[in-house]
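Throughout our pipeline, every protein is held as a single compact record rather than as scattered files. Nothing more is needed to write down the fold, since each code stands for a local backbone conformation. The record that follows is passed on verbatim for readers who wish to inspect the format.
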Amino acid sequence: MACARVPLDEQQVTERDAAGRERTLPALHPHRMEGRCFVPYKPPPDDGCSPAEVEEFLELARFITEDLDWLLSLPHDKFWCQVVFDESLQRCLDSYLHQAPRGLDFAALPSSPAVADIQRSLHRTVFLTFLRMATYKESKDNFITPSVFGEIVYENFLFDIPKMMDLCVLFGKGNSQLVHKMIGKPFDNNDLKTCLSVGVFHVLQVFDTILEKCGLQCDGATAMEPLKLNAHQQRTAMTMSLQELVDIILYLCDSTSTIYAFLDIFPAACSTFHSHSFLSRLTSFYETTVPDLEKAVKKRNFDDKRRQEDLWKRLSHSCRKMIETCHLLLHHTCLQPILEGGENTQTFAEELLQHFTSFLPEKRFLSDYDEQFPIADDISLLQQALPLIDETRTSYLLEGVQSAWDSTGRRKQHSHIQPKNTSAFPVAGAAAAISSAGFKPQEDRESGEDGAVGGAEAMLDSLLSCIRDLLPDLGEGFLLACLQEYNYNSELVINNILEDRLSPNLDKLDRAMPRPVKEELPGVLDSRSNVFDDDEFDVFRRDQVDMSRIWKGRRKGESTREMLNDKRHISDQRARYQAYETVVDEVIIEPGENAESYGLDDYDDEYDDTYDMNQVGANDLDGDSLLSRRWRHLFPELDQNLSSFFLVQNNVNRDQFIQDPAVLRERAEARRAAMQQRKGFRPERPSNVVGQPKGQGQSMETFLDRRKKEANKNRVANHNRRTMADRKRNKGMIPS
């Protein structure tokens, strides 16, 4: 068995082989590895996936969690044998680092609680595995020689700069100190600087790859490769396929988030990044790439608007992380030494001013940086720390910042959130946390307040989820009030809550207070007024519409013949006219009934004959008109002829508003014929210049008509211009 207090790399272990013979092996030997296969990780399915896909992910995540729990339960020597010699374990861990969901990816995950629970459990198990892999001394008896531990890590690629960056972005929130120790333990200072230099080179290659894919060239820095001759033929962000644009933005979002998380958790790397001119390359990349990508996302047509909103949110997140990365580099390389008041303060101040001066040509980047971290506050810090600083130079910088705002067509907005904590140098720009307004891209600010909601809401949700991971019993409304009180600094909020040092106004609040619900504005359709409201085709107020009455273009299947053959209107009117078919000559009235019940009138013929010959009203004033009606009764034929005569006379003299055009043409033709007959005019024979077909001969009339046409054709159209010109010249109108 292993001896006590001997490093694992020097221990010897005696075991029996498969044949039962004893053998002595080093404690770290491939034969001591257990035969267990670790399956690679796959990310959770997107929201809206099938239940089978969800079940498949749950089973896979459960397998990986059980295998890693078994690995963590192994003793020190067995654990390291499995880590060093089991390649399937390394593939499993690498797959999780590559494909595990990041901050903005959780919005697309299924809302199933089972998926969230298993993902959280797997996330914790993977973190504990890497944490144990980064620990060379677990106890006094279980440890590895530090130099040998470094060789094991280096030769087996257990940790490298890309893995460290992924560890920071995945496990950095809430575990910054542990992750910081994980990064610093495997390497000594010289090896770490070498690895960081290689990492910076690869990060710069990421920027060059994005520029190349977008058909752009970085003007503010020396490119890693010379410009290719066929660069003008490359596709741009507006001409590339939508899938390529999506891949570029996702790649940019993941890269910028990873770089910022690494520098934020491991500030010692800022000096290495700064020494490789990373700051100037990043600002030039921002100025060149961001406007082009924003234009492509906003102008191009997307079939799925949710995908367009997601890309816009990720691009906004990328812009914010690049701005924060630049500020992080300036803070750790220039501002922090000035605040500490050590030696060479003047040198650091000069370097900070030099960086600000280099920002002046990058108008878009400078305005975005000044919006999130006001440069005027940093200059105020320098003036307080170094009273002898050149005011002319600072004034020039401030004028350049204002010029950048003017060139972008935006108005500088002053932050309404002031930090609650004061320090020796009360400056907001040097130590400002994330504000509620957040970073808004150029197009967001132009489109108004609604465009900034996506980035600000995503950032606020990220802060709340970070705090609730550690303090799940607190309500989001209470945490939101704490964030507003402490300038949206999540670490300060967590620290004050745990140490019970909240301000008095926060102590009075209910700690389970939910997040206030935003009142949605009434929709445009609810307040609209239209003449077609509530009709049968109003789809905004009706759930069902008769689609048989809606068609595009000419209605299919409808023709004139079918319309004329449609006799349905006759059947509709048949019941109406059936009432006139039955004619009754006599109606027998039963005793006790009257004629009115059968619709009959009370006509009395004897009463009518009694008064038929009497001249009723003969002596009245209008008796002449009454007497004149008697002859109409005695002579009905004469009355009909006279009535027709007077009717015709009345129609002739009647002032008709619109007369029949055919009647008017007939009257005009009759008048013309009568006039020609009176004057003895003989109508001209119609001309026939067409004649018979060729080869059949022409008549004399056709020959004469053609000669007459040829002789008189200069009287019409534009054929008589020479004749008219001669006429004008003869009259002296045109000089000869």
The chain has 31 helices and two strands. The beta strands are 12-16, 22-26. Residues 305-340 form the longest helix (36 residues).
